[in-house]
Amino acid sequence: MEKINKEKFGGEGKKKERHALSPAPNIEEGLAEYMWITEDTPQSPMAPMRCVDIQYRNIESDGPSTLGRMSCYAVGGLSGGESKDDFWRTVNICTDLLPKHKPRYLMGVGFAADLVVCVALGIDMFDCVFPTCTGRFGCALVMSGQLNLKQKKYSLDMRPIDVECECSTCKTYTRFYLHHIVTVEPVVACSLLTVHNISCQLRLKRQMRSAIEKNEFPKFVQEFMIKHFGNDPIPKWITEAMAAVNIQLLEDKDLMNENDLTLRN
Ligand SMILES: [Zn+2]
Description:
By secondary structure, the chain is mainly α. The chain has one domain (about 50-250): Queuine tRNA-ribosyltransferase-like (TIM Barrel). It has helices at about 5-10, 15-20, 25-40, 45-60, 65-70, 85-95, 110-120, 130-135, 170, 175-185, 185-215, 215-230, 235-245, and strands at about 75, 105, 125, 140, 145-150. The strands form two sheets. It has a three-stranded parallel β-sheet, covered by helices on one side. The chain has a two-stranded antiparallel ribbon with strand order 4-5. Helix 7 (about 110-120) packs parallel to helix 11 (about 185-215), helix 7 (about 110-120) runs antiparallel to helix 12 (about 215-230) and helix 8 (about 130-135) runs antiparallel to helix 11 (about 185-215). The relative contact order is 0.09. The structure holds zinc ion. Zinc ion binds near residues 161, 162, 167 and 170. One of its GO terms (molecular function) is tRNA-guanosine(34) queuine transglycosylase activity. This is tRNA-guanine(15) transglycosylase-like domain-containing protein. One of its GO terms (biological process) is tRNA modification. Pfam families: TGT.
């Protein structure tokens, strides 16, 4: 087995060097190594590829039977500053390698577009501080992105955050009220926005699950991306990621008729 060069991954420290130079003797230690290595990956631009390398190494050393013994799988070390191109390609490699009939969980990913892309690539579960963290900054998630309720334009806005949202915050409070308390009662505002933000993400996941069950997921992705990015172009990395799983996104949204969301494939 090829030894992993410490310098290649820019690692420092005795513990990291020891792990980097020796293959995991068993699955338990292999997982411990994997989890430890992902703890400090945000500082490393090579973090995603390092994690993938660990996955490959465990597969090579323990064989497919190791993967088959696990009840679910976590992919970590991403969303730490790597390029979006590295991000989706790494997720795609991992989901190609991991058993498709068992849950695959992606750690620390919470942006709506990222959730949709990663579900398309084969991820089943997520967790992330994003919906609660962004609520602390006075931001409310919506399908088109987020609203910064600190902005003055919401000072007379009597609508809820999202008219389609069923959460208690949207049913009870206006953007006007939330704009007011976000500065004078930040703890209350944080709680209200957290309720909404988590509800918003749960709704997105329910919509994706429903689209998958109806065998309409490609159409859902197309519609979501148009709604999410509005008049902005869909980023190239998303177009390429979706093409990798045979979901063709229209490059020119001017060609898209809202009443005809037929995909090109
Ligand atoms: Zn809501």
